[in-house]
Amino acid sequence: FRARTHALARYVRERITELTGLEAWFPDTTDWYGSLVALPLPPIDEKALLDALWNEYAIQSYVKTWNGLQLIRISCQLYNEADDIDRLVSALGELLPACGTQAGRRFHSM
Questions:
Q1: Residues 43/101, Cβ–Cβ less than 8 Å
Q2: How far is CA 94 from CA 4, 20, 52, 59, in A?
Q3: Residue-wise pLDDT tens digits, 30-75
Q4: Bridge partners (DSSP) listed for residue 36
Q5: In this structure, what are the phi and psi dihedrals at residue 50, rounded to the nearest 5 degrees?
């Protein structure tokens, strides 16, 4: 269980940092995370992003500002597959520019 869910968490870490260009604030090791990761996002309207993820893609997640960082929290479970992560990343690629500030839109055009 732990190895599989950590591998999914590592995959989501790689995919979202690739999408946003923002580095994770923790080392890539099981000492720092297991099946749950919190990754930085560009400046966004948290409520708009969460509403759109749910209403348009039926994806439930959690976004919160902590220590000046806007973070999306993803919890990988046994029922999740890499396809679920790909679907999340695809949705974020579509939604972040629409839910973001000017700074949030800038990353998408890279």
A1: yes
A2: 28, 12, 10, 13
A3: 888 889 999 999 999 999 999 999 999 999 999 999 888 899 999 9
A4: 75
A5: -65, -40
N- to C-terminal Cα separation, the chain:
36
What is the 3 state secondary structure string of the chain?
CHHHHHHHHHHHHHHHHHHHCCCCCCCCCCCCCCCEEEEEECCECHHHHHHHHHHHHCCCCEEEEECCEEEEEEECCCCCCHHHHHHHHHHHHHHHHHHECHHHHHHHCC
Please give the Cα distance from 17 to 57 (Å, whole number).
21
Nearest to 39 by CA among 67, 57, 52, 20: 20
The answer to whether the predicted template modeling score (pTM) of the entire model surpasses 0.70 is yes
Q: How far apart are CA 13 and CA 82, in angstroms?
A: 12
Mean per-residue pLDDT for 80-96?
96
